[in-house]
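# nightly structure sweep
# worker-07 picked up a monomer target from the shared queue
# config: single-sequence mode, recycle default, output format = structure tokens
# input follows
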Amino acid sequence: MQFKKVSASKADYDKNIVVRFFDADGASLAELRTPIDSDWGPADQAEKVLGLAIERSTEAGFRDYGIQIIDDDDLWEERFGELVDDPGCLVKLQSQPLV
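# output follows
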């Protein structure tokens, strides 16, 4: 399965199921947000939350939604599937010269 990597500011929370990966003291965790939720669900193991997102995407009412991934800490593992950059939805940080 292929997933699209997006920046938090570019994620489309109204049209996608969004999974946010993050590092919590060395543990890879994730949170899930769907278009009907107004906030993030509880944090859990990344693999478990991703599985829930895939399961939700097959339920009635969610079949028209994609799954977007926010992974600022680069915690994605190949075994989860293919993660491709969505060029229109990524924010590139440019380094500034020190003055």
